Amino acid sequence: GAIYNDAGTIGDITGDFINNSANASSESSSAYAYGGAIYNNGIIGEEDSEGNVIGGIINSRFIGNHAVVNQGTALGGAIMTSKDLNIIADNGISEFTGNYTQVGDVKDNNAIYVANSSKKLSLIARNNGQIILNDNIDGTAGYTVSITGDNTGSLHLFNDIRNANVEMGNINLNTINSAVRGYHFNNFTLSNDINFTADVDLANSTMDRISADNYGNHNGNINVVGMNILSEAKNSKTEILFADAGLKDNVVNHVS
Question: What is the pTM of this model?
C-alpha cells in the first residue's frame, strides 16, 4: 500500500503508516491484495556477513491499514513479508492497531503475515521500548516468531500469533487488558527468562496463559510478576491451570 520491495534492500524504516491500503476489485478467485502498508520480498535493514538481517522497522506505528479483495486472497493488513523481518522498539513504541484483511464480507484483524515457512519475524524491544500488538500475526505454518529484548523492553500482546513456532526471552510480557485470553503456538521455547503480567478471573478459575502443541528445550523461566484480578474468588482456595507439562517446570511465581 505504501512501500513495495520486491527484491531490493531498503535501510531502516521509521514512521507512522496510517490508513494505507492494497485493494483488488476483481471478481476473479486469483485476485490478491498483499501488504496494506508494506509488501516485502527483499531486505529491510541490512545483512551482516552471515546473512542475518540487522535493523528493520523501528519505532513505527501501523494504524488502520488494510488489504481487501472482493474474492481471492488478502494477506497482511499492515505488512506482508516473505523474508526475515525485524520489528524493533528502541526507547520508543512500535504499535499495530486497527489493521485488517478482508475477503468479501469476511474480515480478519491481521497486522503481519509471514508468507514463507522457513522465515523469521523478530520482535525486539530494548531500552524501555514497547511493542503493542492489538492485531494478530499469521503466516505459512512453521514460520518462526522470535520475541527478545534486553530485559527493559516489553511486548504488550493482546491478540493471537497463529501457526508459529515462538521463541521468547529477555522480555517483559504484558497481556493485561481486562479480558482473559489463551495464547497458543505450534511450538514454544524459552530462550531466556521472561517477566509475565496477566489477567486473572478468579470466579471462573481462568487466567491469561501460554500453551503449544509442542515445547522445545527451555533455557529460562516464566516469572509471573503481576496479576490483574478481574473477579473475586468463590472459594477460599482457587486452582487455575496455567502451564502444560512441557512448560510447568519453568514457571516461577513472584506474586505474594
Answer: 0.95
